[in-house]
Design a protein that fits this description.
Elements (H helix, E strand, L loop, with lengths): L13 E4 L2 E8 L2 E6 L5 H12 L7 H25 L5 H10 L8 H21 L11 H14 L2 H17 L29 H10 L2 H13 L3 H5 L6 E2 L4 E4 L13 E4 L2 H8 L12 H9 L1 H14 L5 E2 L8 E2 L4 H13 L4 H8 L4 H7 L29 H10 L3 H20 L1
Antiparallel strand pairs: 1-2, 2-3, 4-5, 5-6, 7-8
Helix pairs in contact: 3-4, 8-10, 8-13, 11-12
């Protein structure tokens, strides 16, 4: 049954000329008149609806195409509106990165270093491209320009660190800043002319320990006898020290995030144990070296400078020429104590696995990187390290023989028999001599 036509409302977009009904509509600002071919109003309404309303099209394909065209048109219109809106500004990008839930976890000092690097980039943009205010406005050409200037002024190592950070910022802020590309991806890292801190000789270590006192002397002892990095050593707390069992338990800051908080158990050398026990029981709270810990947290570079001055006062040159670097490289620093620990442990006979367990390296290859001396010596333990502190109480240290016997017990019987024969032959030879 045909629907009843309302003569008033159903004449919308319809025009009658003579006996024929026409459809009228505005297209591009122009009035278009199209004949329906019908003389009866109800049929003209049906034809008008077919032409003007895609939802009433009888052909399903025509209806779907019409709807899709309208959706795509709306999407393009919305995209133009969104593109026209301001996006994340360069100056606000660091705060956005720091607060982003998807950014890689970084320590406090590492994050502070990253912030300083990013500030250098923002300052460069303001100076050289003042019209670029949004992060998405940074082009590959600008990235290449900044990297070229950076490469002329910085070491390859520092240059690579900048690229790592900038690539990471763009990756983390990709969606929030509506970035279409990462302009830093096609820039290659520079080849590194690496230079490791050298280990110190026994005479140098003895001279250094003799020249310092108080907390600084304790700091050097912790670095040497525990192989800790500067941050872990200076921020050592009494809660990490078990004097009853003569062991230090600590989670290194550098590996804490990727090792799930693995605790290192480091035996206390007799010299270090004696120095720690000099502190009265009532004062064994908080940091072991509170003064230096406070200085490190306030200005870590000031502590590094004081340590360097100690080496220089002992006649130890801290810098040297490194091929591939425009500036002198650091040859001796606090990290040299870590190298010295590994080398002296190897010379004292500690196994690679034992040294690895103490210094917290994730693999033996990293520990081998620190070895600068003969690695084929009889196995021993940390307690066999030489005393360079001149502390009389160091004589109370455990006998290294127990460590040797402990390692022998782990060997198979056939290996023990072979070692026993060699020892017997050695004893006979000494008796003859």
């Amino acid at each position: 049954m045909a629907r009843k036509i309302n003569e008033t409302t159903d004449r919308k977009n319809l025009l009658k000329r003579g006996r024929t009904w026409y459809i009228k509509r505005m297209v591009g600002g122009k009035l278009i008149v199209q004949s329906t071919g019908e003389t009866e109003l109800d049929k003209a309404v049906t034809e008008r609806d077919r032409v003007l309303n895609p939802y009433n099209l009888q052909d399903e394909k025509e209806r779907a195409e019409a709807v899709l065209a309208r959706v795509e048109g709306l999407d393009r219109q919305l995209a133009r509106i969104e593109d026209g809106k301001p996006t994340l500004g360069i100056l606000a990008s660091w705060t956005a990165y720091r607060n982003a839930p998807n950014r890689p976890d970084s320590g406090r000092r590492t994050l502070a270093g990253y912030e300083s690097q990013f500030e250098r980039f923002t300052t460069w943009v303001q100076k050289n491209h003042p019209t670029v205010t949004e992060l998405r406005g940074v082009t590959e050409e600008m990235a290449y320009e900044f990297a070229s200037e950076l490469g002329r002024k910085q070491t390859p190592n520092t240059y690579n660190k900048y690229l790592v950070l900038l690539r990471r910022v763009w990756k983390v802020l990709h969606k929030s800043a509506k970035l279409t590309c990462n302009p830093w991806e096609n820039l290659d890292n520079k080849l590194l002319a690496t230079h490791s801190r050298r280990e110190l000789t026994i005479d140098e270590l003895t001279a250094v320990c003799a020249s310092v006192s108080g907390e600084m002397r304790l700091l050097f002892a912790v670095g040497l006898y525990c192989g800790l990095r500067l941050g872990d050593a200076v921020q050592l707390k009494w809660s990490h020290v078990d004097l009853a069992h003569r062991v230090l338990m600590i989670v290194p800051a550098k590996t804490a995030r990727r090792s799930n908080g693995k605790v290192l158990r480091i035996p206390l050398h007799g010299s270090l144990y004696a120095m720690l026990t000099d502190t009265p029981d009532a004062d064994r709270r908080g940091y072991v070296m509170p003064g230096l810990a406070e200085l490190y947290e306030r200005d870590d570079t000031a502590l590094v400078k004081r340590i360097s001055e100690v080496f220089k006062a002992c006649g130890i040159e801290t810098r040297c020429k490194v091929e591939g670097y425009s500036r002198l490289g650091v040859d001796v620093g606090f990290h040299s104590l870590r190298h010295s620990f590994v080398s002296l442990s190897a010379n004292a006979g500690s196994s690679l696995a034992a040294v690895q367990a103490v210094v917290g390296h994730s693999n033996p290859a990293m520990t081998r990187h620190y070895l600068h001396a003969d690695k084929n010596v009889v196995k021993n333990a940390v307690c066999a390290l030489p005393d360079v502190t001149g502390n009389p109480a160091a004589a109370d240290k455990p006998d290294a023989t127990a460590s040797i016997l402990g390692q022998l017990e782990a060997l198979p019987t056939s290996r023990l028999v072979s070692i026993a024969k060699k020892i017997t032959a050695l004893i006979r030879k000494r008796k003859r001599d």
